Amino acid sequence: MYYLSAPDRGSTNPGLASVAVGKRCGPPSNTLGSALELDPETGEVDAAGLEAAEVDPAEVDAAEVDAAESALRVQLIDHIRALEELKGSICAAQARAAAVFDESSRRSQSRAGVKRGQLGRGVAAQIALARRESPNKGARLLGLARILSTEMPHTLRALSRGAISEWRATILVRETACLRLVDRQKVDELVAGDQERLAQLGDRKLIAAIKSVSYGLDPHSVVNRAAKAASDRFVSCRPAPDTMAYVTALLPVAQGVGVMAALMRTADRARAAGDPRSKGQVMADTFVELLTGQERAEDLRVEVQLIMTDRTLLHGVLPPVVSRHSGTGDSDADHSGDSPRTVRGRPGGSAQSFVPDGAEPAVLTGYGIVPAQWARDLIRRDGSSAAPQRLRPSRRAPRTEVWLRRLYAAPDTGRLTAMDSRARLVPDGLARLIAARDQICRTPWCGAPIRHYDHIKPFREGGPTSAENIQGLCEACNQAKEAPGWTARCEEAPGAPGAPGALADNNGTGRHSVTITTPTGHIYRSTAPPLPGTTGAVS
């Protein structure tokens, strides 16, 4: 069996908790039991012990096998619980470290003459990079660290001892945000002070316990919080699997119930009239039709930016590319039996590709990779599968308005052809080029949509408005890089310093690459995602 130990959890030392993992006394006495050991570092069963014990399976009693495996299962559950508690201890140590880092950074910025309202700028972004999270998640983690370290000692202690997870610590902080400091600390003491009881509470029971105590301490704050929540209403869209999307609306409860009731009534009427669609399909189609003003959900009249190669778009229209190689290395001879297609003139210069002709996936801006056939259907028809058409034979063929905009790529690297401008503001054509190249915010681990087109070398320092010196960033990342101590520079291909189109990453793929250096000197590299039809798409 295994256990773990950690130092005093009440300490404010930001260092990581030390952990000891070892065996519990009294291992199985039989030969088979002693041969089944659990590696404390990997959590895997050491099968080598069976060979060392020279156990003959024919001589092993079934009851002995059951007993050994039963003991092993006990070990595994103990191991899983110990690791779960260890995760809490590590999260608490990260929170302490983040709080101390925030305080130190603010003092440093203050000494440097940063205005009071700008203190702490860029701190959350550095924490996000260190934890390989998005800047938005980094800001939430920093806020959690501040509150735990300064206002909720009982919750921090419970997290340190592994009684709760980081998420449940977040719930405690979130649900007490509307309270005065003295009331928040009282809730912290009453709810998180009893760690044995706290460890038994699930998410919903924990929220109920917090609300019960909070309402008793300050009912007006709880009521005001509910009133303020209506001002936080919003609508968002995020990708879902299989070329679908989630459109989410945060609404006051009465409005949300009203929306669902209206959609359900429409679906019930359609079903009663013999519509072969399911109730959920009718509700989804009605939702789109009401919001867009379209007669039918399938009739697309908005711009959907889809990036695909000409080979994918025109598959079945143009003749396939034929591979020609000789058995002696002469490129003019024919290998008619070769199944992979030639990629002569394709990015990367590789001789063959395992992707069939016309099957390179496309990129849907704001979503990501989509199958080639789905992309062709979107352009040629309606982007949906054939199944919905069979369900609705009486509905006429969908109408989709299609515009094609050509983007030219360098044949040797696959990078989009550059555009330049003498203006500081990025022109629309260049912005579309950057959006096609970068797809989402270029900051590592940030998947937010592009909102700003940023000069990597600032315009005030002579940075040009060109594809080489522009990157797509979200608003938060663009603001973070303006904090003192942040620098960014383009990577240049070896042997061609400063030459146009000479940007490349360290792997030599030719994709646009930017090196980010934080105020602490940590370095992160951001490389543009591969475009359809390039060798980087499968690297």
UniProtKB/TrEMBL annotation:
- What keywords are annotated for this sequence in UniProt? Endonuclease, Hydrolase, Nuclease
Q: Region entry Disordered: which residue ranges?
A: 320-357, 516-539
A Pfam family (short name) is: DUF222
* InterPro entries registered for this protein in UniProt: DUF222, HNH, HNH_nuc
UniProt-recorded Gene Ontology molecular function terms: endonuclease activity; nucleic acid binding; zinc ion binding
Q: Which residues cross the membrane?
A: none
The record places domain HNH nuclease at 429-479
Family the entry assigns: Belongs to the Rv1128c/1148c/1588c/1702c/1945/3466 family.
What is the protein name given in its UniProt record? HNH endonuclease
- Species of the source: Arthrobacter sunyaminii
